[in-house]
């Protein structure tokens, strides 16, 4: 449960020791920064943006006038108890209708005879009794709130780790004495949940201030500095410099200042990429310094140069700081409904923060958020600062407001193919059709792909559709490049490191360092998989866990502990939907199932525009896309399976194809007579038959399957959440890894069938002899490692259920509800460090997870 220290500096967002000229003092100059950050210039298009209205409404001189215009007691009640108010409104409408009906009865009562009058009065009394009973049912079915303030004062689930750490509190409120002595120190901790929390708060304020629904053209400003810890990436490593000087000539000792104020040439000299033309094509010396950027260079794109790790951190951080474009959209997953019945897609306007300045992590703006919260929850400042914000409460409140006001565009998750433009909308699950995961049938139409037909259709759609126009423009550029060179340029780049292969598991833009603990890496992969599967299930994207990750699922429903990433497969139809509607979308997972771990980071969907071509080419674009953890750069690889009519003509017949028709090809090829081509010809004929029968489907790396193998997809769980797998999973794994299912040892690991876990022999030395050869089936309790025991406590109920489902195999009768998913099965490093600061022991932290 140990973790890698997270860097924190006292004045994280204050530039050089608090001398940030772009952050104004609180007081009369309060809105100087806001004019800069939100582009309040002479351009009228940006003077009246929603965010500007929101920020302007916090001016103390205006006394929150914009919001107050809509404020009354009823609206405060909606804010405190939104769902209860919906029940009240329903009840009020029912009785208004009854009252109107009653008046009509009395108007006609004189026309009746005495007996009819008696019957009428009896009928009225019965209606009143039924109505009162109906009202009682409605009130009893509403959420149970003890009083008006209880919802706001008490989080839905309250532990010390639920509280979001607010930066520079000691500077915002220097006159307040905090009982917690750790307040000052914790305020320097980078809590990744802060920005997702503020995003929910902004949506709430917008709904109240604008008296209605979120419109389709609603959008937000964006800054990467709000979402990732750029301070850590851009911190100069002086220890590395000392080591470098120790082995280099003394002529550099007098140039230490120049070695710290890096330009491109000095960077290349220090970090091992001298003479690399590709590096220098992406590194430019700055003509004038950038605000809050300590170096003399900028990075404009990826490089294949191998860079020493401290330099890689500076490379990625500088690109995020200077040239990384914002995402197209932000997808707030499971933010609507008690059990995540819907998600909100919000458009991002890149023009609203052209200078890429921090928005949320800005002292003045954060203080305005705090004051808005205090006003609407009717708390005093000290009480709020003690309890703070937590995601679960903000999510519940946002859901209630969305339920009351709504969103201008609402679609069912079964209609996601109709998304054809960049806009804000609410996607709602069709609970009658998609609330449960059952056996699913995949068909030929899910895989068929015609490149020419697609390009013709896209060219027509690009005329009116902004997203399709961007994709078509990029594909046109790729085609021109391919005509000249014969292949597509590489799109997805990794953080290639000097003298190490570890960087290949990290996206180059979000690289935060390779020297992380195994536990920490597994917790990142754990959350990455859970978010991907939730997102796909919600949007009817057909996907399954593949390759080594599938092998991990078969064993215990978890990833293999030595895997550096996750492999998933999608159908070609689903990949096309991802590329055209969700490319460059950042997902924030607000699932209530994750408790205080919810909304821990963002995940960027990045689809390779070369996906339209199903030819392997030079092999640099066999990955169709990635889902990337923006906090670390660890990713999930996405590849699609397609049926294309010219596949066998365009590919070389390799071992992978031959094993599809003869799983024992590697053995049988040696029994064929020397010079006898009959065996190979037979295999080729069988492949042609599969192609003609429209059975042969493939990815760009020539991994092949038959449609029959994937025609029936069975419901299960992976990393604790619902997932689909091919019914022929054992046949597929045998073809890919012939001996893997019978091996109990891999690398330095041994699989314990009693604990249902892969255990590292260095954690459990008694599992092996003096030569590190593992014993077969050691007795329960052989390993007394605390880390292993804790992992067993977290996973044993889940893995036991998983093994039981595999042994039972009653797939047709499984109907998996969302509430059957597991709580997080891994302890995140952030909470290890956070709990240590709070004085929470390892045992207490484990109890919080359990």
Automatic annotation (TrEMBL):
Q: What's the protein's topology in the membrane?
A: Single-pass membrane protein
Sorted alphabetically, the Gene Ontology BP terms of this entry are: glycoprotein metabolic process
**Main location per the UniProt record:** membrane
Q: Where is the LicD/FKTN/FKRP nucleotidyltransferase domain?
A: 536-689
Give the record's GO CC terms: membrane
Localization annotation: Membrane
Query: Any stretches that span the bilayer, and where are they?
Result: 115-134
Bias (Basic residues):
1-11
Quote the Pfam families the UniProt record gives. Answer: LicD
| Chain segments carrying region Disordered | 1-20
Assigned keywords, A-Z:
Membrane, Transmembrane, Transmembrane helix
In its UniProt entry, what is this protein called?
Answer: LicD/FKTN/FKRP nucleotidyltransferase domain-containing protein
- What is the source species? Pichia californica
């Amino acid at each position: 449960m140990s973790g890698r220290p997270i860097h924190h500096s006292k004045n994280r967002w204050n530039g050089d020791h608090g001398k940030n000229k772009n952050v104004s003092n609180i007081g009369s100059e309060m809105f100087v920064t806001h004019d800069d950050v939100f582009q309040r210039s002479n351009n009228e298009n940006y003077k009246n943006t929603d965010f500007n209205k929101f920020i302007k409404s916090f001016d103390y001189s205006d006394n929150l006038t914009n919001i107050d215009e809509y404020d009354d007691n009823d609206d405060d009640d909606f804010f405190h108890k939104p769902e209860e108010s919906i029940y009240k409104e329903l009840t009020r409408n029912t009785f208004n209708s009854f009252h109107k009906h009653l008046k009509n009865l009395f108007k006609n009562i004189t026309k009746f005879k005495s007996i009819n009058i008696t019957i009428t009065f009896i009928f009225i009394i019965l209606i009143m009794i039924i109505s009162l009973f109906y009202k009682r049912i409605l009130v009893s079915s509403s959420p149970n709130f003890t009083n008006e303030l209880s919802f706001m004062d008490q989080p839905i689930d309250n532990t010390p780790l639920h509280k979001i750490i607010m930066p520079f509190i000691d500077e915002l409120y220097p006159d307040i004495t905090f009982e917690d002595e750790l307040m000052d120190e914790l305020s320097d901790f980078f809590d990744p949940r802060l920005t997702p929390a503020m995003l929910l708060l902004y949506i709430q304020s917008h709904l109240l201030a604008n008296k209605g629904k979120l419109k389709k053209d609603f959008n937000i400003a964006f800054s990467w500095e709000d979402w990732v810890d750029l301070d850590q990436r851009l911190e100069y490593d002086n220890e590395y410099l000392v080591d470098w000087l120790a082995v280099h000539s003394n002529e550099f000792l007098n140039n230490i200042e120049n070695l710290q104020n890096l330009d491109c040439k000095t960077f290349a000299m220090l970090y091992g990429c001298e003479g690399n033309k590709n590096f220098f094509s992406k590194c430019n010396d700055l003509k004038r310094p950038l605000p809050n950027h300590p170096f003399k260079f900028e990075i404009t794109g990826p490089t294949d140069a191998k860079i020493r790790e401290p330099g890689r951190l500076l490379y990625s951080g500088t690109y995020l700081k200077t040239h990384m474009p914002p995402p197209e959209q932000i997808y707030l997953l499971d933010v609507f409904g008690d059990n995540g019945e819907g998600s909100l897609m919000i458009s991002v306007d890149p023009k609203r923060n052209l200078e890429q300045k921090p928005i949320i992590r800005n002292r003045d703006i954060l203080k305005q958020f705090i004051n808005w919260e205090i006003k609407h929850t009717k708390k005093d400042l000290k009480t709020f600062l003690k309890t703070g914000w937590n995601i679960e409460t903000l999510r519940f409140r946002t859901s209630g407001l969305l339920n009351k006001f709504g969103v201008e565009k609402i679609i069912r998750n079964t209609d996601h193919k109709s998304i054809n433009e960049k806009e804000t909308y609410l996607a709602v699950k069709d609970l009658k059709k998609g609330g449960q995961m059952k056996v699913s049938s995949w068909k030929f139409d899910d895989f068929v792909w015609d490149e020419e037909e697609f390009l013709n259709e896209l060219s027509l759609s690009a005329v009116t559709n902004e997203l399709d126009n961007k994709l078509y423009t990029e594909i046109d550029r790729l085609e021109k490049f391919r005509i000249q060179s014969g292949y597509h340029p590489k799109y997805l780049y990794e953080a290639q490191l000097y003298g190490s292969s570890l960087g290949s598991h990290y996206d180059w833009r979000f690289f935060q360092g390779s020297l992380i603990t195994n536990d920490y890496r597994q917790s990142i992969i754990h959350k990455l998989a859970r978010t991907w599967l939730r997102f796909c299930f919600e949007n009817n994207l057909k996907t399954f866990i593949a390759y080594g990750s599938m092998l991990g699922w078969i064993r215990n429903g978890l990833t293999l502990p030595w895997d550096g990433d996750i492999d998933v497969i999608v159908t070609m139809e689903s990949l096309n939907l991802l590329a055209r509607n969700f490319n460059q979308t950042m997902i924030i997972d607000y699932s209530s199932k994750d408790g205080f771990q919810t909304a821990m980071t963002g995940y960027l969907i990045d689809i390779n525009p070369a996906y339209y071509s199903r030819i392997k080419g030079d092999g640099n674009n066999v990955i169709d896309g990635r889902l990337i953890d923006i906090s670390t750069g660890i990713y999930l690889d996405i590849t699609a399976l397609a049926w294309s009519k010219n596949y066998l003509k365009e590919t070389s017949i390799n071992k992978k194809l031959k094993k599809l028709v003869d799983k024992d090809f590697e053995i049988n090829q040696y029994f064929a007579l020397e010079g006898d081509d009959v065996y190979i010809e037979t295999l080729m004929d069988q492949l042609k038959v599969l192609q003609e029968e429209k059975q042969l489907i493939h990815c760009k790396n020539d991994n092949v399957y038959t449609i029959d193998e994937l025609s029936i997809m069975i419901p299960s769980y992976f990393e604790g959440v619902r997932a689909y797998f091919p019914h022929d999973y054992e046949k597929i794994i045998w073809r890919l890894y012939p001996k893997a299912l019978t091996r109990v040892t891999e690398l330095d690991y041994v699989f314990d069938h009693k604990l249902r876990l892969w255990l590292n022999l260095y954690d459990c030395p008694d599992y092996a002899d003096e030569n590190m050869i593992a014993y077969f089936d050691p007795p329960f309790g052989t390993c007394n490692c605390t880390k292993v025991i804790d992992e067993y406590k977290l996973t044993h109920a889940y893995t036991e259920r998983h093994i039981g489902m595999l042994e039972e195999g009653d797939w047709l009768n499984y109907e998996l509800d969302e509430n059957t998913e597991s709580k997080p099965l891994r302890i995140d490093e952030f909470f290890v460090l956070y709990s240590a600061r709070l004085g929470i022991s390892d045992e207490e932290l484990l109890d919080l997870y359990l």
